[in-house]
Amino acid sequence: MSKTKELNLKEQIIDAARRVLLSEGYRNFSLRKIAGEIDVSATSIYLHFENKDDLVHTLMEQAIERLNNQLQQVVSEADSPIAKLEALAYEYVRFALKYQREYQIIHLTSSDEMTRYPKEKFRKARKGYEIVSNVLQEGADGGLIAEEKPRMAAYTFWAQLHGVMSVVLSKRLDTRINRQEFIDEAIEHIIDGYKIRTALQTNNK
Amino acid sequence: MSKTKELNLKEQIIDAARRVLLSEGYRNFSLRKIAGEIDVSATSIYLHFENKDDLVHTLMEQAIERLNNQLQQVVSEADSPIAKLEALAYEYVRFALKYQREYQIIHLTSSDEMTRYPKEKFRKARKGYEIVSNVLQEGADGGLIAEEKPRMAAYTFWAQLHGVMSVVLSKRLDTRINRQEFIDEAIEHIIDGYKIRTALQTNNK
Amino acid sequence: MSKTKELNLKEQIIDAARRVLLSEGYRNFSLRKIAGEIDVSATSIYLHFENKDDLVHTLMEQAIERLNNQLQQVVSEADSPIAKLEALAYEYVRFALKYQREYQIIHLTSSDEMTRYPKEKFRKARKGYEIVSNVLQEGADGGLIAEEKPRMAAYTFWAQLHGVMSVVLSKRLDTRINRQEFIDEAIEHIIDGYKIRTALQTNNK
Amino acid sequence: MSKTKELNLKEQIIDAARRVLLSEGYRNFSLRKIAGEIDVSATSIYLHFENKDDLVHTLMEQAIERLNNQLQQVVSEADSPIAKLEALAYEYVRFALKYQREYQIIHLTSSDEMTRYPKEKFRKARKGYEIVSNVLQEGADGGLIAEEKPRMAAYTFWAQLHGVMSVVLSKRLDTRINRQEFIDEAIEHIIDGYKIRTALQTNNK
DNA sequence: GATGAATGAGACTTCATTCAT
DNA sequence: AATGAATGAAGTCTCATTCAT
């Protein structure tokens, strides 16, 4: 019973944090507000999290985990490596659009906003790369994908996707450009980069 | 002498701001610190900038401008459209690595950290896209680049580059991967995506 | 012509000051606001007034002068000393009610809000006492008013009136008490205190 | 010990506030100074008081309460209604002279300096009037004092006293007039006004 | 576990005043 | 004569964090 309750507060805090993040943005994401949301003293958050960053890290971690799970699933449901890459890309996009704030938070790690992200957590974050990496390897083995260095390729794949979504979410996209078209075009470009290129392929779009 | 001094404080503030940003990161970027740096009252900053965001915007603007100038120059120095794209990509990378904090600040716009970025300033920011866009158009005209939509392609180009540098700067790159190799590989990928693909080309790597 | 303009600015400032005082109260009475009112730099006020207090003093002085003139006039229009006292009291009340902010400002001198009121200006302020004092003397000479010390009596008269208006203007009057009735009653009391008292009364203390 | 300390800061702030008020006057009464006095962060004051006004209100309230207590006591110690009125008047004077700053603060309510004085607190302030009012009623019942409207009379009594002290404390009293004599004279005048007047006098208006 | 009190940093605003031009 | 720039004080608010209970 007490265990339940203990877990509860931590979960409640995380939930409230997500809620605040969603409604107010990171800029206005404060421990006080979170505490207020669940009628708990701000100090109580420190019973479950070392500090604000730690709480944000947890949010990040969970978001990453959710994303990874989604990716894992769509990969398992697609047949060919190329289809898998496409599925990965589109799932990534879907996630970024649906959970914008959380997506953005994931990428806060980078900026000095969130320096202290603990090393151990990076491993979990890296799982996404592995998924991509495996698909690329699978494609390379099957002669469909031209990659001698699947790990590095996973990173470039990932990086390119992130760049695309970053532009989309930052609303820096020219208003004359249709968002979905942009995404489609970009993904096509990115994936094309990994296909074995032959004369036959260049025209098969 | 008088004119000089008048103009000075604003410039001094910007300089100090850049310095603080560089040494302390955005997380610890405070008006007080900036004011302290140049032995000026914090209030004085408000005589030249509406608020903290306004100052940051100015920093962004200047960084963008500098970047754009650099891009413009390298473009003008390269011959072929492909060479120009490459030059653009490498100059972008160079800038991002050299002025990391400023590069990061430019991309703060996106996150809600910096919502209030004024519309008018976006235009200047968009100049980079135009530069790329023009090169792509030029290449398309010359039959070297396969783009019917140079504007959109400019955005995908840009986005992908940003993604790459974002991964690099966030230090999320797997330690087993060499940074420069990663960058080279990624740029090659990205640019390849815009080349006219023929059987001859696929093997010329 | 230049003289005219010079005088103008000073007058304009005073006018604007009065306006601001009226509309915003002393609490929000700021040099900036005054300057803004007449589209002049705040610094310009210092060309005509030593500082904020000096400007306020000027306002006070003018208000006092206006009050004194009014008092002088009503005194000259009344016949008997008693009638004169009454006229003085009612004119004083009328002024306090009509120019509340200015009336209040006159009495700011006292509180440490306005310590530095210059000695020379006190003399002008004292003219009001003289007027009362003269009336009392006149009444004493005529056997109507019991005062051996008209100067002191003038001060008590004045003080009592001020107290009454102070209560009225501070809105501290019980809501069940009618304002005008209170004023009438108080004035009656005050003036009664100066009338010749018979032997019967004077000894019952 | 714990309770003591908890209650302490608020009290300490009030004490420091009173000290600052005393030594520097309302003009220089700043939260920062108060905080400095007791080596406490200025922010801490906001944990106990809504804002500066709230703190001042508290000072006022306590001063009023202290005054009322004094008045209550001297009234209970005097015999006849007339003696009580005199005791009240002299105690009032004593208080005003001894606690000048606090006395002045009490009367800050009026000026727009201190607009936001909360309604509930007025009730406490009104207790002084009740004390006077009761004495007047008692005197009226005993045929010594001529008052059909003791409540209003209490206000006029009060107002007159305040006026007198206001003149005294503002140092506007003519230097040729002895302060104590002035006070004595004024009080005599004021109290005389409430004594039963004979037919001869009452009709000579 | 949980909390209230306190802290110190910081943003932002308004202000009176000074100074150099 | 007039002004813009700068200053320092101050009020107000919000915040992350610490501490003692």
Structure, described:
4 copies of one chain form a homotetramer. By secondary structure, the first copy, chain A, is an all-alpha fold. Chain A has 2 domains: 1-49, Arc Repressor Mutant, subunit A (Orthogonal Bundle), CATH 1.10.10.60; 56-202, Tetracycline Repressor, domain 2 (Orthogonal Bundle), CATH 1.10.357.10. Chain A has helices at residues 2-24, 31-37, 42-48, 52-77, 81-98, 100-106, 119-141, 150-169, 179-192, 199-202. In chain A, helix 8 (150-169) runs antiparallel to helix 9. The interface between A and B is large, with 55 and 55 residues. Chain D binds a DNA duplex (21 and 21 nucleotides) through residues 2, 5-6, 9, 30-33, 40-44, 46-47, 51-52. Chains A, B, C, D: Residues 7-67 form the HTH tetR-type domain.
Give a quick summary of the entry.
4 copies of one chain form a homotetramer. Chain A is mainly α and 205 residues long.
- Greatest chain-chain contact: C-D, 59 and 59 residues
Helical proportion of chain A, percent range: over 70%
CATH homologous superfamily of the largest domain in chain A, by name?
Answer: Tetracycline Repressor, domain 2
CATH architecture label name of the largest domain in chain A: Orthogonal Bundle
What would the principal axes of the Cα set say about the shape of chain A? elongated
Pfam families (chains A, B, C, D): TetR_C_33, TetR_N
InterPro entries (chains A, B, C, D): DNA-bd_HTH_TetR-type_CS, Homeodomain-like_sf, HTH-type_TetR-like_transc_reg, HTH_TetR, MT1864/Rv1816-like_C, Tet_transcr_reg_TetR-rel_C_sf
GO molecular function, one term (chains A, B, C, D): transcription cis-regulatory region binding
Protein name (chains A, B, C, D): TetR family transcriptional regulator
